[in-house]
């Protein structure tokens, strides 16, 4: 039995029952693939169910507000995915009469859709022979064939894509693609895979050479930067606060946060007191404040570690743009902010 047959046979026995595997509807497959970018199935499944329930068709998604989509997405991170999701839904509805492109080449033109996602949709929804290469596939191929080319190098990306394209089963590309991805996810796992139960053990180069733990090879990550955030949690006598929409580009674009002052280090109460608040929304010099957390809350992102303090500031009244404290949970916000809102007793 060859590589393809073994994978497909294994998949027929071991595959997980997942809702997007029960359909060929490109909308649902696209939705699942976008959600599962940078997200494990266990975490992504409830979000998929929520989106399908609230937006059962691409027309529903296109007609939704960005704020409601970001709110439903809250907690998944990498929010550009949600913004791209909305943009693409509107594009398909308004420019393509609600019809998904039915081939890899045209799918690749959609915003937020790269090589992997286009290949997945094309093969699973339209049975096109388009090989997928995601993190799971990189791991399976690098171990099985003993390839030590870094998977995040330009050479590695080309090499693995070419190899995947030569291996894909032309008669059942959808099944094969899902089989190799599932195999990497639950059998050929990143750490401590059970090689004794692997159907490919008799011909796996990494197992033979005892290099399971070092493959695949990946170039070192970009240096992590550290930032210090001071969120100003204003509260007035009318039980209102200030909550701002982030307009500038970045990971939290169009999400809401409390007014923010960035500092060069973690501030003590005395150092915070010395800050100049004339440029803040209130344009005042003296504030009646207290510190919510003495120890920084560290929020780790892919390339940034945010050391955060929340400063509780009492004022008599706030500007007209202030909102009711009770309405805070209606706005989409980063997990860092939403967790504070959940735990702080306003």
From TrEMBL:
Zinc-finger listed as a keyword: no
HhH-GPD domain ranges (all copies): 35-186
Cofactor(s) this protein cannot do without: [4Fe-4S] cluster
Gene Ontology MF: a single term: 8-oxo-7,8-dihydroguanine DNA N-glycosylase activity
GO biological process: base-excision repair; mismatch repair
Cofactor notes: Binds 1 [4Fe-4S] cluster.
InterPro entries (alphabetical): A/G_AdeGlyc_MutY, DNA_glycosylase, Endonuclease3_FeS-loop_motif, HhH-GPD_domain, HhH_base_excis_C, HhH_motif, MIG/MutY, MutY_C
Main enzyme class: hydrolase
Protein's UniProt name: Adenine DNA glycosylase
